[in-house]
Specification:
- It is built from 16 helices and 13 strands.
- The chain is of the alpha/beta class.
- The chain has a 7-stranded parallel beta sheet, with helices on both faces.
- Strand 6, helix 6 and strand 7 form a beta-alpha-beta unit.
- The model has no long low-confidence stretch (mean pLDDT 92).
Length: 374
């Protein structure tokens, strides 16, 4: 039986452009970068495209028209289609215009509509419009979790028959132990001592870092002295309160470290590898990539029991009520002290990470393209 023909896939890579993002990849950027790397192994010839000033682009070629011009054309001339010399165009970041080829859109969550109180009020309307626009113009929609389906139907009006679930993943390289000498070097450069409590994510209300900080500060003094709380993430929308709490704890001499920016994926991987416990108390996630990264790094995980997170952890983490500071703190203390529980969580996490790799994400994504073209 002959192998399926290679597909020409246009992939939006705006969120991976260093000249546009400052070198900081958010969750959508990580997703787009992973597909760019892995789709060729799944039988796809990937042609990256980015919106933005041509001089700022180094990953994707410029789109035929700017987003503003293409959007105006869509509104004034709805029958027009932008020509793309590809079999399928995959929009990963909500920037969609009408094209003369099938369009697949990944809608990661419905946060601006489901929880407007957590979003930047100046950008909320624009994000709502962009997401609804993407849902309307796409021929097929990819959701990153089963949880997301109901929200896509309710918030965006997507026909459930046009939705496929393709989970996010982790780089397979993370499943190999990071070199101990490199990890130690990174930790020294950042002022970290191995065994800390770690959390990763943009600082914003839904990440629930305020309750995590409160839970950590409620731990016995000897535990806090032994284990730092390390927060990795840039400040996001409505983050002032949490940032102020973090800085106040630091000024009081608490063992809290905030890393607002890491310089490379290797550095991030080393920070995961040095952790003793990973804590992810998020109130809302379309998926939750940091959980899988922690699994891949062999770190025991405490995770929220809300939204999509239990679907991602699949029993491999210690689940907690993210609204309960005492539950978060009790789980942190238990994993810090119970070596047998730690080993069980580490083993279960490794198994789960093997099921959720970016290579598998790319394989399932390519299957969506092929089904759409039948």
């Amino acid at each position: 039986m002959s192998a399926p023909r290679q597909l020409r896939i246009g992939l939006s890579t705006t969120t991976t452009e260093p000249g546009l993002t400052g070198g900081r990849l958010d969750g959508i950027g990580v997703y787009s970068h992973a597909l760019l790397r892995e789709l060729p192994q799944a039988g796809c010839a990937v042609i990256p495209y980015s919106f933005g000033p041509t001089a700022s682009l180094s990953v994707g070629r410029p789109m035929p028209r700017s987003l503003a011009l293409a959007t105006v054309s869509d509104l004034l001339l709805p029958g027009t289609r932008q020509h793309m010399d590809v079999d399928v165009f995959h929009a990963t970041d909500y920037r969609i215009v009408r094209m003369d080829c099938p369009v697949v859109a990944t809608l990661h969550d419905a946060l601006p509509i489901a929880h407007p109180e957590w979003c930047n009020p100046r950008l909320r309307g624009l994000k709502n419009w962009a997401q609804v626009n993407a849902a309307r113009k796409a021929d097929h929609v990819i959701a990153v979790s089963q949880f997301a389906i109901a929200e896509l139907v309710q918030c965006f009006g997507v026909d459930e028959r046009r939705i496929s679930v393709v989970p996010n993943g982790v780089d397979e390289a993370w499943l190999e132990p990071a070199p101990e000498s490199r990890v130690a070097e990174t930790l020294r450069s950042l002022g970290l001592r191995a065994g800390y409590f770690l959390t990763v994510g943009t600082i914003q209300p839904r990440k629930n870092f305020a309750r995590l900080l409160e839970a950590y500060l409620g731990l016995p003094a000897n535990v806090r002295a032994q284990r730092q709380l390390v927060i990795v993430g840039a400040p996001g929308a409505r983050s002032d309160d949490v940032v102020n709490r973090i800085r106040a704890a630091q000024q009081r001499g608490e063992n809290v470290v905030w890393l607002s920016h890491l310089t490379s994926f290797d550095q991030l991987r080393h920070v995961y590898a040095g952790a003793g416990v990973f804590v992810f108390p998020s109130l809302y996630e379309g998926f939750g990539i940091p959980v899988v990264e922690a699994f891949g790094a062999g770190v025991p995980v405490i995770a929220s029991n809300a939204t999509s997170v239990p679907e991602v952890t699949a029993g491999a983490a210690v689940d907690v009520d993210p609204l309960s500071v005492s539950a978060i703190g009790s789980a942190m203390l238990e994993l810090a002290r119970d070596d047998a529980l730690r080993r069980r969580c580490m083993a279960a996490g490794t198994v789960r990470a093997l099921q959720l790799t970016w290579r598998e994400t790319a394989r399932k994504t390519a299957a969506v393209y092929r089904a759409l073209l039948k």
